[in-house]
Design goal:
alpha/beta, 14 helices
Length: 431
């Protein structure tokens, strides 16, 4: 039985699965926590990765491995390969002005054409501009830039800071299409870095990871094959077996809607991010801020747990008697309404019941995700099926109401560590 290892280095934790390459069955697994915060020492990820591998029983019997990880995080390295400063994560918003500045300089349509993205604070290019403007001494020290999964792959293969007079092996930094497509300085159409944009952000050129194709591999110090890895959403798409025509609707603390597309998408409004996937296709994606927490807050208001909230929602008729919840409890990213608040309308003596409020919460949350699905479909992406994942997908009410609101057939894959399993599936292809 050949074994492969898949890793999910997420914002909160590191998960490792050891999988039978032939069947996909999980043989053993491990995990370790990451520190809180939006600015993190990458050394903490490295320590957690080693701890999670040990918790999974080690990797001595593993034939191949790959790492999936949180997108966009800026890992800046100096000429010796040491980390210049704590990594700014995708959810660090201090680079919001840098995003606006870059958009003002180049234009949203031009940036979307060149990279598939209109900058927001999440993307790596904005963090590099912030570094240039806010910490110029640190910016001047940067000799290479990697993303979290790139850097961890480099370290686990046996590379890192130089010893003595040796130079760090920056030529051994590798990444994949999906993670490169979230930087803001990579062109999904040509598959090349847009170094003019990189220089405009950081102020000078630097070494960047080589972008491997979906089935390319390198080796580690023990001779094991190492896959390109992937950004978390692309790895999750692999993990659930999403194909062209599928859209994955992930209902967690926030929501994401991403489709596997045979064609590249360009959205100059910035609503849909034109990512690539890990399988040679493309992964247009929409993110929302208000997802499962909508159910949390209404459940607390009604004094019930998630199971009871689901039962209440299913006891109401579709449309909740006219009661309608606009669930922008924390503003919203899609549509871009950062200062918006939630609204409950259609309240009458007849409609204002516990059952209708529960139903309105589920329908309102799903309508927000449906808007993302419609934005992707509006770019010409065919959508035949929705795959519902994440904590919110465990609600029976969500599962039963979703087809009505999303307007497509819905399937709910068995719960699992989709990102780590996607990385393991990638490793199995090269084992």
């Amino acid at each position: 039985m050949a074994l492969v290892m898949g890793v999910d280095s997420s914002t909160q934790s590191c998960k490792v699965v050891i999988v039978d390459a032939a069947t996909g069955a999980v043989v053993r697994q491990g995990r370790a926590s990451h520190p809180d915060g939006t600015s993190v020492d990458p050394g903490a990820w490295w320590s957690a990765l080693q701890e999670a591998i040990a918790d999974a029983g080690g990797m001595d019997d593993v034939a191949a491995w790959a790492i999936g990880g949180q997108q966009h995080g800026m890992v800046a390295l100096d000429e010796r390969g040491d980390v210049v400063r704590d990594a700014l994560l995708w959810n660090d918003t201090r680079s919001a002005q840098a995003a606006a500045d870059l958009t003002g300089e180049f234009g949203a349509a031009e940036l979307a054409r060149r990279t598939g993205l209109v900058p927001v604070a999440s993307f790596t290019i904005t963090k590099l501009r912030w570094l240039r403007d806010s910490e110029p001494d640190n910016a001047a020290r940067v000799a290479a830039v990697a993303l979290p999964h790139d850097w961890l792959t480099w370290r686990l293969r046996g590379f890192g800071a130089a010893v003595g007079d040796a130079k760090p092996a920056f030529d051994e930094l590798v990444t994949d299409r999906s993670d490169a497509s979230g930087t803001g300085y990579w062109n999904p159409a040509g598959g090349d870095y847009d170094r003019a944009l990189l220089v405009a952000a950081l102020g000078h050129d630097v070494a960047l990871p080589r972008v491997l194709g979906p089935d390319e591999w390198v080796t580690d110090a023990a001779g094991r094959r190492v896959g390109a890895g992937a950004g978390d959403n692309a790895a999750a798409a692999l993990g659930v077996g999403a194909e062209v025509g599928d859209v994955v609707v992930s209902i967690g603390t926030s929501g994401t809607v991403f489709a596997v597309s045979a064609e590249r998408t360009v959205d100059p409004t910035g609503t849909v991010a034109g990512f690539a996937d890990a399988d040679g296709h493309f992964l247009p994606l929409v993110a929302t801020l208000n997802a499962a927490r909508v159910l949390d807050v209404v459940g607390r208001l009604l004094g019930v747990d998630h199971s009871a909230l689901s039962a209440l929602a299913l006891a109401a008729e579709p449309g909740a008697g006219g009661l309608r919840l606009l669930p922008y409890f924390e503003g919203e990213r899609t549509p871009n309404l950062p200062d918006a608040t939630a609204e409950l309308t259609g309240m009458t003596l007849a409609s204002t019941t516990r059952e209708n409020l529960a139903r309105a919460a589920v329908e309102g949350m799903l309508r927000g995700l449906a808007a993302g699905l419609d934005a992707i479909r509006g770019l010409g992406v065919p959508i035949d099926r929705a795959l519902l994942v994440g904590g919110g997908a465990q609600s029976e009410a969500v599962r039963r109401i979703a087809p009505e609101v999303l307007g497509v057939p819905v399937e709910v894959p068995a719960a699992g560590e989709y990102v780590a399993l996607g990385a393991a599936r990638q490793a199995a292809r090269i084992a």
